[in-house]
Write a structure and sequence with these properties.
CATH topology: Catalase HpII,  Chain A, domain 1
InterPro entries: Catalase, Catalase_core, Catalase_sf, Catalase_SrpA-type_pred
Family: Belongs to the catalase family.
Bound molecules: protoporphyrin IX containing FE
Number of helices: 8
Helix content: 25-40%
Number of strands: 12
Keywords: Heme, Iron, Metal-binding, Oxidoreductase, Peroxidase, Signal
Number of domains: 1
Oligomer: single chain
Distance between the termini: 36 Å
Structural class: alpha+beta
CATH superfamily: Catalase core domain
Organism: Limnobacter thiooxidans
CATH class: Mainly Beta
GO molecular function: catalase activity; heme binding; metal ion binding
Largest sheet: 10 strands, antiparallel
Radius of gyration: 19 Å
Length: about 300
Amino acid sequence: QTAIPSEPANAVNLVDGLEGVFGTHAGARRSGARGVCAAGTFTGNKSGAAISKASAFSGKEIPVTLRFSVGGGNPNAPENGKGVRGLAAQFDLPNGEQWLMANISAPFFTAATPDGFLAFLEARKPDPATKKPDPAKIAAAAAKYPDFKPQMEWVAKTGVPASYAAVNYWSANAFKFTNAAGKTQFAKWMFVPVTGQEFIADDKLATYSKVFLADELKGRVSQIPVEFDFVLQLAQAGDVTDNATVAWPDDRKKVVAGRLKVTSVTDKEACDGINFNPLVLPTGIEGSEDPLLAARAGSYAVSQGRRLAK
Ligand code: HEM
């Protein structure tokens, strides 16, 4: 009987795990492989400044490099299929700092811990004989890690977004915010499209091309910038801050802390050099104890090294 996962997770075996499921595609990110670069601005506001002293909330308009993506490591993933979408951003802040982030269109991540995520991936590696994952391995991993459930249930019940611009994106991980007075609190963030979410009816999915998201976004931004509210959800004492498979209760205070405007869809070169390591944070925002954060920082660098090397 093989251990689940086969060994403790680390930056390298997590990327190997992604390659095991999706294959190795030259030049492509090992997750969020299908995607498109974009550019825009972020303007933070006073409500944000009351929560964090980060210069993102100074009120100045900040240039932002963005990447929208389809979850997983398949660069040809069908865009009319179920699954999570991603919104990654690099804020170039007025004080010279950067803030990097990669968010998903679900309030939860796949697994609570790097070991759990490695187990998830290992169980889905196709068997060389059948070219399909072994259902017994998937069941064994799910039995050991019940935390896989929230995201899977979310994806099953949530429709396919009609646009990269018409779905909410969540940080899923919690972060620690400190304001100018030294007050510290935990928060998660969301990007909420100001024109609302839009999903494709299940019976209309087949009428959509497998490749429509980048052109759809290009069409929108050529008319008018696409805007998202940047919303901070504030933790209360006792809320879980180290487990991205646990959403906080809906009644937690939400504060609109800024506005993201997507102004253009850009060439691949504009964002391919960036790995959106979520621990590149400005003064005034720190990581939480969530073990996914450090694992992400390492894996993103490994993936970037592999994709830029070949
Ligand atoms: C241990 C957990 C995780 C691992 C091992 C992992 C791994 C990766 C890797 C290897 C990449 C490609 C990086 C690159 O080549 O630049 C990636 C991209 C991405 N990840 Fe994760 N990830 C994890 C957790 C998360 C979480 C919690 C979120 C969000 C809530 C997330 C959202 C994304 C997004 C949106 C991208 C695409 C970024 C882009 O457009 O460049 N990941 N992930």
